[in-house]
Amino acid sequence: MDWKDILIQVIGLMGNVAVISAVQFNNRKIVLGAQALACILWSVHYGALGAVTALCTNFISFGRSAVFFFNHKKWAKSKLWLWLFLALFILNSLVTWEGPRSILPAIGMCATTLALWTRDERKLRLLYLCSSPPWLIYNILCGSWSCTLVEIIALFSYISAIYRFDIKKIHKPKENKSGMEALPADEV
Length: 188
Hints:
It is a single chain. This protein is mostly helical. It has one domain (3-187). The chain contains 7 helices and no strands. The chain has helices at residues 3-22, 28-49, 52-69, 79-95, 103-117, 121-142, 145-171. Helix 4 runs antiparallel to helix 5.
């Protein structure tokens, strides 16, 4: 592996670090901003690897992140944007067909698109978790070793965030006004 190969892997790694770090914040705007930055880095990374489907997928993703960042504005609220981006990811897989592996970025990005559209951080984290396995497989197939490694770490990050913000919260005992743990109704 020469310095060019190492640089290509480092660029992919930087995109992953941006996204993994962002989901540890419970803030949609930070997640979307990091996603846009990652799309730029990943476009360069996959382009250098010759992975055309992923390169084009990330161009589309950058546009998606920009629109979704503003989906509180009237022009960006329409669900047509959601359906447009889902259709573009699927169409991209067909237009840039590199064999069956081209389906994987479409699956991953459709899950991510649904995640970024929602205003519910819990659903966002679950959908990010669903987007990870197709990308893991694609990265292995196209030789993106830094993204393969980081996608494994991302899976643990998403699981950690789900545990911290969703599961742990559900199992936390409720307290009554006196600060004492409330007993379930059948134990009273």
